[in-house]
Write a structure and sequence with these properties.
The complex is a heterodimer of chains A (632) and B (101). Chain A has 632 residues and is mainly alpha-helical. Chain A contains 25 helices and two strands. Chain A has a two-stranded antiparallel ribbon with strand order 1-2. By secondary structure, chain B is an all-alpha fold. Chain B has one domain: Helix Hairpins (Orthogonal Bundle), CATH 1.10.287. Helix content of chain B is 77%, strand content 0%. Chain B has three helices and no strands. Classes of the chains: A mainly alpha (632), B mainly alpha (101). Chains A and B meet through helix 25 of A and helix 1 of B.
Chain lengths: 632, 101
């Protein structure tokens, strides 16, 4: 059992280091194959652990080594695989394996093929550290590790030119990578403060010890810790107001978007809240705040997805929106529901993104959906997968999304937070609309791609086969809800619906399905027959422009934070650095140089002159000696 | 008039001054050698005189050492001088300034 833990954890590391050996070399197909197999081994180990824990019901703990020992501080580098971790590990490694295999196809003609796999595996390793660690500090290391890998992978095509938003709404990869990293840095500070507060008050960072001693803390302190940790979660899971980086992160290669910015890394924030459930259970007011933020983000992001024309950005906003759902569930105390939606979402969202990758390949990296259309003929399988994933995302029976999203809505209803319920219900309709707007724009209607001279082609067979596990899980995962609940509630608090809700379940389900179907039908009517653009509406409708420009928030951040900061930096550079720091350093250097220049003349190579200097020195020293003796 | 310590020291000082002047003024390497020999011998005179004056033999031993070292120095130095002369055809210091800073 312990060996399985180590295999699951370290196979991705080995994979990353192996690929790193060839990072500077041109493409080696073997690298892609070996890394895929190693991640696959990690998947096998994770699933075996999951089944073992399912049978035994006991968590597996290992201690790798003493990590920090200073004074009273004793932190071990330990890992625990319990029910929640096992689920997370299985989801992460499954999506990772699919994405690794798929990347062999997607990156086949990229010149940095080997480097890509090294980064991708490094990400998997960091994510495993994040979910497997048995203490907050180990989680933080993984947290930062995935941040770095995300930065590396968003900026994977760092050589692409830097463009401002005025020129191009999709900015350069290096800009996007920095934005993601800096945004996360802001949030990580909050998280770090939370961990400090925990250590300061309890003297330990180990989950089991921290959660056992929560009753020693005052209520105010618990609220403080809860909020600080949630700020960290907000950054990683791109919740408002730190959400702008996620849409821009779509500059990275599409497999990266599928793995990191849809299925795994962005759900780390949700994982943190689920993991810290004993803490959040004691502070329901913070939980309610989390639920409200999540609900707001759900509808906020969905509204932006309604009008966006960028294939990947629509999916990115939908990810944001679904993360909002997860936070809403977790905030309301239904932790297993959040975890269930997290897993289901990982499957169908990764599938959707990979499908988008196929479309991008076919369209020669064109992302504007208004320039696609009618791709169903050439890309039957991709259409099938993306359609399936969109159905799951919209929450149509019997796909996974139906079960998870419906449960979240039931929870919101059960808690009598009808505002949250209504907003999430409305969002379900919007979700269905924008998902199928995308499907219809890309696969149905007139073939607009002729205008940009694209020759669409279906992806290679093995890439399509690689997507199959995700598709199967997106279909069947919902039916394992009962097993899932029984499994994870051994660790997470069970959430019981009241009688009142039990009677209402059928009505709620029908109402939710109805709005989802309405969304799909509206999208069908509007987009399935081809694109009819109303330019007057697009240019003059205030609401459309507001949504299309993402509520002007990127512009606001640019003006309110980025610009003043740049001006401040310019002043610091021109006035302080150049005038004071550089001037001092240059002055010292110049003084030394001038002295040398002058004294160099004494060294003219003539022995006579040297002897004269020597004699002068001798006389000088003698004089000083004599004078000092006389004075004494 | 008896010759006392002072006379020896004055002689030593004069010889040292002569040697120093030679070192500073002369441009010929060979002459520089002679000048340093004069300075060494000025020191020898002072050593021997003071040694006799205070009745301690150490000074005279030092003088003997200096004579031995001076002899070997001259042997090495003259060899080098011959080589320099062979290589550059001159012993004039003004023409031998090849190591400029």
């Amino acid at each position: 059992m312990e060996n399985l833990v180590y295999i699951a954890l370290f196979a991705p590391l080995v994979s990353s280091l192996f690929a790193a050996l060839f990072a500077q070399k041109p493409k080696i197909q073997l690298v892609g194959i070996v890394t895929s197999i190693l991640i696959g081994i990690s998947l096998l180990a994770s699933v075996t652990l999951l089944l073992d824990i399912h049978e035994s019901g006991k968590a597996v703990s290992v201690t790798l080594m003493d990590w920090i020992q200073a004074g009273d501080m004793d932190i071990k580098f330990g890992f625990t695989v319990d029910q929640v971790t096992a689920v997370m590990m299985s989801v992460v490694t499954l999506v990772s394996t699919v994405v690794h295999v798929y990347s062999n196809y997607y990156m086949e003609s990229d010149k940095s093929f080997n480097r890509f796999f090294s980064y991708l595996s490094a990400f998997v390793f960091s994510m495993m550290v994040l979910v497997m660690s048995d203490n907050f500090l180990g989680l933080f290391i993984g947290w930062e590790g995935v941040g770095v890998c995300s930065w590396l992978l968003i900026g994977f095509w760092y050589e692409r030119k830097d463009e401002t938003r005025d020129v191009n709404p999709s900015i350069s990869p290096s800009w996007a990578a920095n934005e993601a990293f800096i945004m996360n840095r802001i949030a990580d500070l909050g998280m770090l403060v939370g961990i400090f507060m925990i250590y300061w008050n309890l003297g330990t960072v180990k989950y089991s010890e921290v959660f056992a001693h929560l009753d020693q803390l005052s209520h105010g302190m618990l609220v403080g810790i809860g909020i600080a940790l949630f700020i960290g979660a907000m950054g990683k899971s791109a919740q408002f107001p730190l959400h702008t980086w996620l849409a821009d992160a779509m500059e990275g290669p599409t497999p990266v978007s599928a793995l990191i910015h849809a299925a795994t890394m962005v759900t780390a924030g949700v994982y943190l809240v689920i993991r810290a459930n004993p803490l959040y259970s004691q502070i329901p007011e913070v939980g309610y705040f989390i639920a409200v933020v999540g609900t707001f983000v759900a509808i906020f992001a969905a509204s932006m997805a309604l009008v966006n024309r960028d294939l990947k950005r629509v999916i990115a906003y939908s990810t944001l929106s679904q993360l909002g759902y997860m936070f809403a569930a977790a905030g309301l105390g239904a932790y297993w529901v959040a975890l269930f939606h997290l897993a289901a979402h990982a499957f169908f969202k990764a599938l959707l993104f990979i499908g988008a990758g196929n479309v991008m390949h076919a369209m020669h990296d064109e992302l504007d959906m208004f320039k696609m259309g009618g791709l169903k003929k050439q890309m039957g399988w991709t259409f099938f997968y993306m359609g399936l994933a969109s159905l799951a995302l919209s929450g149509i029976y019997p796909l996974a999304g139906f079960f998870s999203k419906d449960t979240i809505l039931e929870v919101a209803f059960n808690e009598h937070t009808y505002g949250i319920w209504f907003t999430l219900w409305l969002t379900a309709g919007l979700t269905a609309f924008y998902s199928f707007r995308q499907v219809f724009l890309v696969f149905f209607g007139d073939e607009r791609y002729h205008e940009i001279g694209a020759h669409p082609h279906e992806a290679k067979a093995y890439a399509l086969w690689a997507m199959a596990p995700l598709a199967i899980l997106a279909v069947i995962f919902g039916f394992y809800k009962e097993d899932f609940v029984e499994f994870v509630t051994k660790l997470l608090p069970a959430y019981e619906m009241s009688e009142h809700t039990h009677h209402m379940v059928w009505i709620l389900t029908l109402v939710t399905t109805a709005i989802a179907l309405t969304g799909i039908i509206v999208a069908f009517i509007k987009y399935s027959k081809g694109l009819k653009r109303d330019l007057n509406f697009e240019q003059n409708n205030k609401l459309y422009k507001l949504l299309y420009n993402q509520y002007y928030i990127p512009v606001l951040y640019e003006k309110a934070f980025a610009k003043p900061y740049k001006e401040l930096s310019d002043i610091a550079w021109q006035e302080i650095d150049m005038q004071v720091v550089d001037a001092t350093v240059d002055g010292i250097a110049k003084a030394v140089e001038t002295t040398g220049d002058v004294s160099r003349r004494a060294q003219n190579g003539n022995l006579s002159t040297y002897l004269k200097w020597m004699a002068a020195g001798l006389i000088f020293v003698t004089l000083i000696t004599v004078i000092s003796v006389v004075i004494k | 008039m008896t010759i006392g310590l002072t006379h020896y020291l004055v002689l030593s000082a004069i010889l040292f001054a002569v040697g120093l002047a030679g070192v500073l003024r002369r441009k010929n390497l060979l002459m520089l050698f002679f000048a340093t020999e004069i300075m060494l011998n000025a020191a020898n005179i002072a050593f021997a005189a003071i040694s006799t004056h205070i009745g301690d033999l150490s000074g005279q031993m030092f003088a003997l050492f200096i004579i031995a070292i001076a002899a070997s120095e001259v042997a090495v130095g003259l060899g080098l001088l011959i080589l320099i002369y062979k290589k550059y055809g001159t012993l004039d210091l003004d023409n031998l300034s090849i190591m400029k800073g």
